[in-house]
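Reopening this ticket.

The earlier resolution said the output was attached, but the attachment link was broken on my side. Pasting everything inline this time so it's all in one place.
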Amino acid sequence: MTRFAPSPTGYLHLGHVVNAIYVWGLARALGGQVVLRIEDHDRLRCRAEYEAALLDDLAWLGFRPDVDVAPLVRQSDTPAIYERALAGLRRTQHVYACGCSRKEIGGQPYDGRCRGKGPDDGPGRGLRVQLGPATEHFIDALLGPVVQTPAEQCGDLLVRDRDGQWTYQFAVTVDDIRQGVTLVIRGADLASSTGRQMALARMLGRATAPAFVHHPLILDAQGAKLSKSARDTGVRELRAAGAGAPAVIGLAAALAGLTPDSAPVRASDVQRLFETPKPGPGLGS
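Inline output:
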């Protein structure tokens, strides 16, 4: 089981299409299934019109989740699930309130300066869970063996921010457990999150970590990750210019190095790009 999990903070672009190709392509090639999750934990940036647009674009492209397995899930619809997960952490782990801003932390791993405070987050205070010194080991199907020490990378993990919102790291970890996700497929820019999510998942009771695939990103002319504001690579702009869905998928596949040219590819055929898989252990359905 894997998932396609966009955030409705902008419109879909070719980078999202690459992720969809990997998600549906690997799932179908391995005999697995895909669930669709809307990651709208950031209530300050997410908008209903972006969600409507991304669902429309996804359907137009032909990428359809297995709704018989699980219906569409929105993180904003399930606050009670996160509250229960947090309550479990409070019982078994050191959870404490933190009022530090990003500016105060200064882009460094959080040093635990608020550990002495109580567990009451209150207004203007977030919640962190203390991470031990353990080193996490996993084998990524594309990156190979990876070793991470979350306490050194990020320090104690923020699970709810100062605005009362669930953090990405916490919400996706809880969701992957409750949805039975056994294969996480996402961009290489999120590879650094893996160790901390594995540690958090164990705290939440997950016995076996999922398999991971972190695929290459499409970069812009400046070598940066594509932005949702990049109109020249936006799915809606390409549609308006007259491109068909197979042409858009074919272009994304070529830019990602999955095909030698930008010949059209239908969503129903993307598994063919992975039917002779490159060596790499750890994949499952």
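Reporter confirms the inline version is readable. The chain has nine helices and ten strands. The radius of gyration is 19 Å.
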